[in-house]
Amino acid sequence: MACSTAAAVACGHSRVSPGPRGRPIDHGRRAARIVRAAGNEDMNAPPFVVPQDCFQDKTYPPELKAAKQLKLLVTMVAVRVVLAQEEGFGNECHDDPSYTELHDDLTTFLSQNPLGKLWDGEWLEKLIRHPKLNCRLAAVRIIEVRDVYLSKEFDWGLYKSEAFDDMDECYKRLMSEHMERSMLG
């Protein structure tokens, strides 16, 4: 017979394990996406509920939306790296860029198929199936650059702390301005 979560904790059933700060976690059912305010130890405090329809494209949870945007960002960086490499190919001694055929084909493809309009996987599939060899070669290079950039160059810690620092600074500034306006009138 199945126990409630509280009863399962009391009788020691295996589907419940101690979670962070000793709180029980019921592994028998999927938890709702509820986020508690940072530092709030009161389990009876009202949670922040993340609505499932918070994005127009129905992406849920928000972390999945962030992951999709990160993939798009990395693909955009890779495209720009490949274009920059092609602009400078054989151009060590000149100030004027010498554009290659691959550069021209990739920019033409990009103008006809903007990267933000398609999911980055669809965009790359379309590029790698292009009839022109230069477009297919560009797709392979973009895939390789994405891999190297994300695995070796992208500094997760720096950007996470930068985001937190910016949000914290914004929070302090806006709350200070709000308090000043509230005190004045």
From TrEMBL:
Gene3D superfamilies, alphabetized: Chaperonin-like RbcX
Superkingdom per UniProt: Eukaryota
InterPro entries: Chaperonin_RbcX_sf, Chaperonin_RcbX
GO molecular function, one term: protein folding chaperone
One biological process term in Gene Ontology: photosynthesis
Coiled coil: none
Protein name as catalogued: Uncharacterized protein
Organism: Micromonas commoda (strain RCC299 / NOUM17 / CCMP2709)
